[in-house]
Amino acid sequence: MKWLSLLTNEWIKIFSRIRTWIFIAIPILIIIGVAVYDKVTTDVEVNENWKQELTQTMEEDKKVLDEAKKNNDDEFYIDMLETNIKQNEYMIKNDISPYEKTTWQYMKDMAPISSLIGLFVIVVASDIVSSEFSKGTIKMLLIRPYSRWKILLSKFLATLGFAFVMWLVVIIATWLVGGLAYGFGGIDQSYLIVSDDQTVKERMVVEYVFANIGVEFIELTALVALSFMISTLFMSNSVAIGVAMFTMFAGNTIVMLLANKDWIIYTLFANMDLSTLIDGQNQLIKDLTLPFSISMLAIYTAVMLAITFTVFQKRDVKA
Amino acid sequence: MTTHTLELKNLTKKIKGKTIVDDLSFSVREGEIFGLLGPNGAGKTTTIRMIVGLISITDGDVSINGINVRENYEKAMEQVGAIVENPQLYEFMSGYKNLMQYARIMPGVTEERIDEVIKLVDLEYAIHDKVKTYSLGMRQRLGVAQALLHKPNVLILDEPTNGLDPQGIYDLRNYLRLLANNGTSVIVSSHMLAEMQMMCDRVAIIQHGKMVRIDEIQSKEVEADVKVHFQIEGDVHQAKQVLAEINPELDVVESGNELIVQTADVKSIAELNKQLVLAGILVVGIQRKTKTLEERFLEMTKKGGDLNEMAVPVNE
């Protein structure tokens, strides 16, 4: 299959660049750094008196909550305080220490690192089409005996492959580092969530970790499709990086501002943060569910890819 | 019967109502070097871009080895090697890795072939260096190398001598000739007349997207191009009479103290000299002069008629 060689070529191009290796190294260094910092600074004695400490925190939270209610503060803030208090109460009652750390807990704690990976994937995805235009190398590629869609598909799959590999490398690194720092046990460890009816429940940490790994693959696919479309349309990687990053980061702020609008759940950025939907904690829009968001992302991805391929097929290359 | 490897039929490109290439038709024979000559902006590069499928064809057809590019692009491009404008390569990779990119996706390129091509363009000493360290000439040569990798029978080079030094140009010319002799059709574009005349068998002159004319370039040693200048001490007119008596058909022109005779044959020059000396004419010098390329071009364009507005720089 000669066509696979196109994929090999793209893969080689991605990994021939130093920045790719830096992108992989940064999250790994952060993972190691956080574990080391945590190990060095954690006071073991305090951890053993965790019940006392938790009670203290709870008392303070209660005071703050009363204050907040008096001042008619933001509902979201009040909710958060109530949740915290409930969780702490439950922990003390059921003897669940918040400091009992294992590699699975570490993986859950480090889950937000996926945004960093999203960022690097955006850079690579935005670059893979537009830089060939800006450097003019696209000409050398398009005059080969391959239809344009095959060339574009090879680029899309190579970027997707890169994104997935990077995510897997980071997951494995987190598990390893967490295991070395806190031990590899704890597969049966649970954590607490507060559901909508304000009852506290236990959930498996492992469950969260694997759900998070899964949804990140979906998020990355949508993110690659988005950057890909923008960079093909505008042939500029800076525009593509800008738009994709905006969707990923500023998207949250916009969603918060427009959270009470009905149509917000149909926008791309409202559905870009799947991990909050796993256990429904800190969820900005209550109407969203995981299946709904995944379906929305699938539709968006399909439409964006369709636009990208149509435009690329017809474009006059003057680079 | 001559086989045509590349055929353009009424090729037209319009961009936003403006006609860039206008009803262009020509056929390139197997084993010839065909030039597209015209000033900058004449539509040479646009034509080449349409041939290799970089831009869409508004009207007309392009066939490569009898396969219509619009109908079966993949099949048609298998036998094509090209450089469109400057060869732009991946700067962050070595020359060798760049070649590997193309070797991988073209049919039938072996490792030996890669080495052969590298040797041919004389890049062995730098092939494992990153392309960002290459000079323009080295990039050009690497570009030629990638175009030749799969032994295409149609080779399209847009401004191939750009950035090459005189030695490089000479080598390229010889190599293109070798390829052509082996049956490859080579299409080169240039705005430099001198280059085209030395390189091509036929030249299509394009202006404002239209074909002005196609000229056969005659070989350098044709009689019409070589003139012999006899420097005469004394009566030049008498000397002319002497030559006219020997051969009335001989084209002899008086110019100052010189007689200019059109002949390329060395023996006849010696014979003419002998006759002049025997007739008592003092011949103080004999010089063979080839017509300058500029002279040739001007002659060519005069025949072409309305080419006055076309400025073709000869030396850049």
Textual characterization of the structure:
- Chain A is mainly alpha-helical and 319 residues long.
- Chain A has two domains: 3-41 and 100-314, no CATH class; 43-98.
- Chain A has helices spanning 3-15, 18-41, 44-48, 50-70, 75-94, 103-109, 113-135, 137-142, 148-182, 205-234, 237-257, 276-279, 290-314, and strands at residues 190-194, 200-204.
- In chain A, a hairpin with a 5-residue loop joins strand 1 (190-194) and strand 2 (200-204).
- Chain A is globular.
- Mean pLDDT of chain B is 82; it is low at 303-316.
- Chain B has two domains: 4-216, P-loop containing nucleotide triphosphate hydrolases (Rossmann fold); 223-290, Alpha-Beta Plaits.
- Chain B is of the alpha/beta class and 316 residues long.
- The A-B interface holds A 2, 5-6, 8-9, 12-13, 16-18, 135-137, 139-140, 142-147, 314, 316-318 and B 15, 49, 52-56, 73-78, 80, 82, 84-93, 97, 101-102, 104-107, 146.
Give a short synopsis of this structure.
The complex is a heterodimer of chains A (319) and B (316). Chain A has 13 helices and two strands. With 319 residues, chain A is mainly α.
**Structural classification of chain B:** alpha/beta
SSE sequence of chain B, one letter per element: EEEHEEHEHHHEHEHEEEHEEHEH
Helicity level of chain A, as a percent range? over 70%
Instruction: Label the structural class of chain A.
Output: mainly alpha
CATH architectural category of the largest domain in chain B: 3-Layer(aba) Sandwich
Order of helices and strands of chain A: HHHHHHHHHEEHHHH
Q: Can you tell me the number of structural domains of chain B?
A: 2
Task: Give the beta-strand count of chain B.
Answer: 14
Strand order of the largest sheet of chain A: 1-2
Q: Terminal Cα separation of chain B, in Å? A: 39 Å
In which order are the strands of the major sheet of chain B placed?
A: 6-7-8-3-9-10
**Major sheet of chain A: size, sense and barrel closure?**
2 strands, antiparallel
